[in-house]
Amino acid sequence: MLPAAGVDATTRLAKHVAATRYTDLPTTTIHAFKRAFQDHLTCAIAGSAMPVSRALLEYFQQT
User: Fold this and answer.
1) pLDDT in tens, 23-54
2) Alpha helices in 1-63 (DSSP H)
3) Cα maximum dimension of the chain
């Protein structure tokens, strides 16, 4: 994909991503994304129960 005149990198990337379909993705990419997303959710859930997380939540609810 050659850059068009006057089009910045963010716009080119957004157009590329918008044009990409699920069926265009390799199965290894889909699998890697699912694992990374599952890891993120697991860490977020586990971290939400940490004392520091509860203290921050209380602080931000008061302010």
Assistant:
1) 999 999 999 999 999 999 999 999 999 999 99
2) 9-19, 27-48, 51-62
3) 52
